[in-house]
Amino acid sequence: MKHLFRMLCAACCLLSLAACSGKSVPSPGASGPGSTPIRDLRVIPQDLPRFARMAGENTPLLSPTDQALLDARYNSIVFGPWELARPSIKKKDIASLFRSPRGYKMNGQKWTRAEWNAMLANANLASYPNSGRKAIATRHANLRELPTSDMRFSKPTPVVRDNPFDNFQYSSLPQGTPVYVAHISRDRKWFYVETPLAGGWVRSDELGWVSDAVAARYRSDSYVALMQDDVPLMHGGRPVGRAHIGAFFPLARTTAAGYVVLVPVRSSSGNAVLEEVPLTAAQAARKPQPLTAGALARVGQQMMGQPYAWGGMLEDRDCSATTRDMFTPFGLWLPRNSSAQARAGLKQDISGLSAADKKAAIRRGGVPFMTLIWLPGHIALYVGSYQGQPVIFHNMWGIRVVRDGDDDARHVVGRCAITTLEPGRELPNRYKNALLIDRIRAYTILGRD
Questions:
Q1: What is the 3-state secondary structure (H, E, C) of the chain?
Q2: Lowest mean per-residue pLDDT among 106-110, 256-260, 330-334
Q3: Would you say residue 379 has pLDDT above 50?
Q4: Which of 158, 180, 301, 304 has the most CB atoms around it within 10 Å of its CB?
Q5: What is the pTM of this model?
Q6: What are 141's strand-pairing partners?
């Protein structure tokens, strides 16, 4: 498993986490986030439990034995960073990202060579690796391409919600994510870490050092996963964090109201200490939960309508974070980016088929709530049919349209929704051959080899 983790982490780093879109992101153009909703959102019930009932909501999608094996694999991958004795990511791969300034800052000004050089100098890569210790996210943290909290956009962006694509943002890390600290910046404000998702920079005040005793206590046989978003974590009447679906914590004990879990909190000395935090049965559940369409639908419905955000910025989700977090309570590991998720089960290539044949193949071979639909840069969950059309649950940014001579504008959807495979088909100015169905290449049945 240590070898597997090394391969996964290095691969994720090299892929630069192309999650749900290319790194060069078009402006909203044709329509902003407040535009008229596309037909699918007005016609299709945005109700996952309804589709789960049609799929047989209480029918197990995996056997208990298979699910237990997958959950054990999930936990092994998550704790993989703590098994590292040395970094798996090479200095030259980290240094290559500093080569030339790219994009715009929040104020609309271009990033300069001087600012890029200052970040490189602070990274102090000549001494890489200068650390090699276990740590853990002691708050909801951000994994960054370079050691900065400033943003990098492909175009001037006065309002982040109009273009939620900070290209420095690799991923968010739920509180409780184990990491391996390979390197510390010159000012000690940034750590270069390897995580279960990828390598990148994290602010040092978002992590706590983990002793062997804390690591042993944290690696439990019983875990509790979040079933709701925006759950306050309280210890002794004071807040110690805020958790979302996708996070899980070791179980300390059960109570009449639910659970008491162990939550890592950063001490004044920079070490992680474990605090007991109560969670209700509505907020959390034992991991892994029995995997059924109904249970998945209840988790996914919590995300319905939530705004799109690249790499988990603003504590929101993109397409792959949506699918990944949705399956966490059930112990089914999904990688961070869409192309890797498409390889996480039995993949069926349908790239050479017509649109009608692609739909027929998905309806014939896909398993509702266990089948991912993949096209380059995007991933969605097949949930069944509506009026004879296959429908998917996904978090999408927008549909490519033409406006004022610009053929790379977007009619923005910008939310988590249920749609057909052709959202925006009715738009008179949509770009030719730019519907999802035109670009779908494969579907993947999870839990199968």
A1: CHHHHHHHHHHHHHCCCCCCCCCCCCCCCCECCCCCCCHHHHHCCCCHHHHHHHHCCCCECCCHHHHHHHHHHHHHHHCHHHHCCCCCCCHHHHHHHHCCCCCECCCCCECCHHHHHHHHHHHCHHHCCCCCEEEEECCCEEEECCCCCCCCECCCCCCHHHCCCCCCEEEEECCCCEEEEEEECCCCCEEEEECCCCEEEEEHHHEEECCHHHHHHHCCCCEEEECCCCEEEEECCEEEEEECECEEEEEEEECCCEEEEEEEEECCCCEEEEEEEEEECCCEEEECCCCEHHHHHHHHHHHCCCEECHHHHHHCECHHHHHHHHHHHHCCCCCCCHHHHCCCEEEEECCCCCHHHHHHHHHHHCCCCCEEEEECCEEEEEEEEECCEEEEEEEEEEEEEEECCEEEEEEEEEEEEEEECCCCCCCCCECCCCCHHHHCCEEEEECCC
A2: 106-110
A3: yes
A4: 180
A5: 0.93
A6: 173
Q: Phi/psi of residue 83, each to 5°? A: -90, -10
Place of tokens 């639910």: 258
Q: How confident is the model at residue 35 (pLDDT cuts 50, 70, 90)?
A: low
pLDDT tens digits, one per residue of 64-90:
999 999 999 999 999 999 999 999 999
Question: Dihedral sign, CA of 285, 287, 290, 291?
Answer: positive
Place of tokens 């057909």: 420
Q: How far apart are CA 6 and CA 449, in angstroms?
A: 21
Identify which of 220, 120, 116 has the alpha carbon closest to the alpha carbon of residue 176. 220
Read off the pLDDT of each residue in 339-367 and give the average, rounded to a whole number. Answer: 98
Contacts of 216 (CB under 8 A, 6+ apart): none
> Cβ(113)–Cβ(98) under 8 Å?
no
